[in-house]
Specification:
The structure is a homodimer of 478-residue chains. Chain A is of the alpha/beta class and 478 residues long. Chain A is built from 14 helices and 16 strands.
C-alpha cells in the first residue's frame, strides 16, 4: 500500500495524504501528466472519507501540483522538476547558538560585576501583572490595532508629568516618543542623523554597545577624553576645530552619570556643550540611563533643560523597572518629530502597546515612584556595603569613584593591571569583572587599573565574596 | 521676599528653592563669585527647615552652580553665562502631530476598506490578560532581565511546533528568531543584506510600506510584474539577465497570497524562483502575512519548505492575533544566525519578553488555533457577505479576485478609474478605498480600475453601506 492513514499522527488524514502525494511528485515517482485515481475510487481503496481525498486534491490543485480538466480527471501538472524536500529534524538542540554568543547571558554561579542590571527580585511582579490584566481586559478593542509610531498618548502624558515631578523638566507630551528601550532610540537617531552627518563625538570611555549601535548606522566615532568632571568639552571644541571633516552628526553624552566613570557633568561644561551645538548646528544626545538613582540627594538636572531644541533626551525604564519590558522614550525637538515618526513606522511600526498602557497606569498611580524609592534605599545599602567591603578587603590599596549616582562604582587598583589573563583567571574563580579599559574607544591603558563594579543585582554576600576572590586571585597581601 | 515656599506645589520645597536659585543664576541676578546666605540664616529667613536649604544647596553644588570653600561660605561659581531656561508649557495639545500624519489612524465614522486589520472585537482580551497575569506572576525574577536577541526559547519551540501543525513545516526552534512584528524582520534583513547587494526584486504591485522599509536600508527596488498566478518568475529571470548591476540582495515575495492582488504562487514558479536564488546566490524573502486565513481549505504550503537555505520566512501574529502586540518571527538560514543576533542586539536588544512568554503559553494550550478557527469562520462569513453584496449592488458590472485567502478581496471596476478626485470624493462621503494603482511601484494605470476591499475589521452592515456609497458616488446605474 502506497499510503496508510495514521490516526495517531498529529496531522489530519487529509494532510497526510496531501504530504504523501506531494512527496511522490517531488521525488519524481508521480510524473507530469500522470493521472491520479478518482476521489471515489481512492476513498474506497484507502478506507477514508471521500471528502478527505477531495480536500487533499483541492489543496494540491490550489498549490499547482495537480490540475483537473473536464473529462480528463485529475493529473499531475507538467513542468515540475524532481526536488526532494530537505530532510529537517525538529530538534530542540540549541546548536544554532554555538559559536556566536551575542549579549551577556549569565551563568548562575558566576558573580558578575557587570553594571546596569536592576535587582529584579524586587520587581513588583504581582502588581505589574494585576495592572496589565486590568488594562488588557478593559481597553476598547481599537487599542489592539496598530497604534501610532509616537506611542500611546496616555503614557506620553504620564512620562511628561513624571519628568516634571522627578527632574523638574517641563516637556510637552507631544515631544515624548516611546521607544522599545533606549538602544532603539539611539539606533533611530543614528539612522536619521546619518543623513546630515558622517561622524559623532562620544565620551571616551563609553558604553561600547551604544557605540556599536552608532557605528552600524554608518557613522564614524571620535572619542572625547573624560576627566573627573565628565566629558572634557574644551577638548571636544579643539578636536572639532582640527577636523577636516565638518559633517558632525551629533555628540553622544551621559551627563548625569558618565558611563562608565561616573562623573556628573558640571553646569559650565553643560553650557559650553550647548553653545557648541548651537554654533555648529548639531544635536547633543543625552543618554540618561540611570540618573534616578542618585544616592546623595535628588537626581541632578538634565542637560535637556538648557536647550530642548539642540538636546535629544533618551530615557529608559530598563534600570528603574525591568529590561525585559523594553520600554524607553526619547524627547525629540519639534522639527524632527515628522522624521522620527516615519523612521519608527518603518522600523517596527510602534512599540508593544499593552505594556505602554500598563506603565501609564503604574506611573499615574504613583507606583513607579514608590518602586524607585524602595530601590534607592536597597541600592544605597548595597552600595554602602560594597564601599565598606572594598575598605575591609583591600584597606587603602584601592579607591572608589563615581559612586554618587547609579548602579555601579568604579574601583581603581593602582598596583594592578587587569590584563585579559587576569580577567580570565578571575572568571575561572567565579568572578566576572570588566576593566574600564574595555570601554575605552582607543584602548587607553590608563584605564587598565580600573574596573566597573556593578552591585545592584548582587546580594551583599555575593559582593563580599566577589571582592575576596579578586583579592585572592590578584594576590593582594593586605 | 525673593522666595516664598509654596506648600501646595507638587514639587517639594527644597526643589522650589533649588529651582529659584538656579533661575537667579541663569538669569544673571546672582553673579559669579557672589556669596549666598548661610543655610542657618536662610532657613530662619524663609521659615523652612535648615535641612531643606542644605538639600537645595547640595544639589546646586553637585550640579556645579555653587561651590563651598573652607571659611569662605557658599558662592556662585565663576564662568557661567546668563542663559534663561526656555519657557516651555506642559500642554496637552497634540500640536506636534499636525502636518505629519504617518500611519493610518482611523476616524471612527469612516468605513475604511484598508486591508489587514483583524476583527479585534473578537480578540480574547480576558483570556490573554489571564495568561499574561499568570505568566508574569510566576516567572523567575531572572526572566525580567535582558533576554537573548533571538527571543524566548519557549516561544521559539512553540512556534516550531505550531508551524508543523499548521503548515507541515519542519523547522528547528533554533532557527526561529522572534521579531517585534514582520516590519522589523524585513528592516533587519534589509540592513544585513545591504552588505551583500545593492537592490532587490519585489512584486509589482506590492505592499508599499514594506517597500519603504527596504528603501530606507539603502537598497534599490526593481519591480517584477504580477499576473493572475502571482509573481512572473520568468520576467524576473529576464530582467535579472539584463541588469548591468548584478549585486542583487534579495527577492521579496508574498507567495501564499500575493499582496495586494491575492494570487497563490503555483509550485512551478516556486521551483523556478528557488532555482533562480540558488544559481545567483541570493536570498528569497517569503512574507507570509496572512496565509492562515485560507477560506477554501488548509493554508497552502510555504515556499520555505522548498529550500530553507535560500528562503527566509517572515511570520506575523498581527493578523491572527493583534497588531498592538508587535509579535512576529523570522526563520533564518543557519549561516545568517550570528549576524541576525548581532543586528537584533543593536536594534532593540530583544523583543519585549513577557508577551513572548504569554504567546508561548497561548500556543501550547491550543488557544491560538482555537482563535484562528473561530476567526476563519467569522471572516468567511464576512467575505461571503462582501461577495454577495458586490453582486447585489453592482450586478455583473464588477468582478472580484484574490478572495480564496486572507483578509481582503480585489474588486475590478472595468468602467471606472479610481482617480485621486474620486478617492477623495468617496472619503468625503464616508468611505476610504485604496486603488491597487497606489501599490504599483511604477504607478501602472491598468491597476486604476481595481481597489482593495479589506473586510475583516468591518461589520456586515458597514460592508453593505460602504459598497452602496461607492455605487452612488461613482454613478453606477444598475
Amino acid at each position: 500500500m502506497w499510503f496508510t492513514p495514521d490516526k495517531k499522527n498529529e496531522l489530519p488524514v487529509f494532510r497526510q495524504l496531501y504530504e504523501k502525494i506531494k512527496f511522490l511528485i517531488h521525488s519524481g515517482v508521480l510524473k507530469g501528466n500522470e493521472k491520479l485515481p478518482s476521489s471515489r475510487f481512492l476513498s474506497k481503496d484507502l478506507g477514508v472519507a471521500r471528502s478527505t481525498v477531495l480536500e487533499a486534491y483541492d489543496q494540491l490543485i490550489a498549490e499547482g501540483y495537480l490540475e483537473t480538466r473536464q473529462g480528463s480527471g485529475t493529473r499531475v501538472v507538467q513542468g515540475l522538476v524532481a526536488l526532494p524536500p530537505p530532510a529537517f529534524e525538529r530538534s530542540s538542540v540549541k546548536s544554532a547558538f554555538r559559536g556566536c554568543r551575542v549579549g551577556d547571558v549569565q551563568s548562575e554561579s558566576i558573580i558578575n560585576f557587570r553594571s546596569g542590571i536592576p535587582d529584579l527580585e524586587a520587581f513588583p511582579q504581582k502588581e505589574w501583572a494585576r495592572i496589565y490584566a486590568r488594562v488588557c481586559g478593559r481597553l476598547p478593542s481599537s487599542s489592539f490595532r496598530y497604534s501610532g509610531p509616537e506611542g500611546v498618548w496616555a503614557l506620553r502624558e504620564a512620562i511628561s508629568a513624571y519628568l516634571f515631578r522627578m527632574r523638574g523638566l517641563k516637556v510637552s507630551p507631544g515631544r515624548v516618543m516611546i521607544t522599545s528601550g533606549s538602544t532603539q532610540g539611539l539606533a533611530m537617531i543614528s539612522r536619521l542623523l546619518r543623513k546630515t552627518g558622517e561622524y559623532i563625538f562620544a565620551e571616551d570611555p563609553a558604553h561600547t554597545g551604544m557605540i556599536e549601535v552608532v557605528s552600524r548606522a554608518g557613522l564614524g566615532v571620535q572619542g572625547v577624553p573624560v576627566d573627573e568632571k565628565g566629558m572634557d568639552v574644551s577638548a571636544l571644541q579643539l578636536s572639532y576645530s582640527q577636523q577636516s571633516n565638518s559633517n558632525l552628526a551629533f555628540v553622544y553624552t551621559t551627563p548625569s552619570h558618565q558611563y562608565p566613570l561616573g562623573a556628573i557633568l558640571p553646569v559650565q561644561r553643560r553650557q559650553s556643550l550647548v553653545h557648541f551645538a548651537r554654533e555648529n548646528q548639531c544635536v547633543v544626545i543625552e543618554d540618561d540611563y540611570d540618573s534616578e538613582f542618585r544616592h546623595e540627594g535628588a537626581p541632578t538636572s538634565a542637560l535637556y533643560e538648557l536647550d530642548p531644541e539642540v538636546v535629544i533626551y533618551l530615557g529608559s525604564f530598563s534600570k528603574i523597572l525591568a529590561p525585559a519590558l523594553r520600554l524607553g522614550f526619547a524627547i525629540i525637538p519639534e522639527h524632527m518629530i515628522c522624521d522620527w515618526k516615519a523612521e519608527k513606522m518603518y522600523t517596527d511600526v510602534h512599540t508593544e502597546a499593552l505594556s505602554q498602557h500598563t506603565l501609564a497606569e503604574f506611573l499615574n498611580s504613583g507606583g513607579l515612584e514608590r518602586h524607585i524609592w524602595k530601590m534607592k534605599k536597597l541600592y544605597a545599602r548595597k552600595r554602602n556595603h560594597a564601599l565598606a567591603c572594598l575598605k575591609n578587603v583591600f584597606g587603602g590599596a584601592v579607591s572608589a569613584s563615581g559612586q554618587t549616582n547609579g548602579l555601579h562604582i568604579v574601583v581603581t587598583f593602582p598596583d594592578l593591571v587587569f590584563t585579559d589573563d587576569l580577567v580570565n583567571e578571575l572568571y575561572e574563580h567565579g568572578v566576572k569583572v570588566i576593566p574600564v579599559d574595555k570601554y575605552s574607544l582607543n584602548r587607553n591603558s590608563k584605564y587598565a587599573h580600573k574596573i566597573v563594579l556593578g552591585y545592584s543585582h548582587l546580594t551583599h554576600e555575593e559582593i563580599s565574596r566577589g571582592l575576596e576572590i579578586i583579592k585572592k586571585v590578584a594576590g593582594y597581601a593586605c
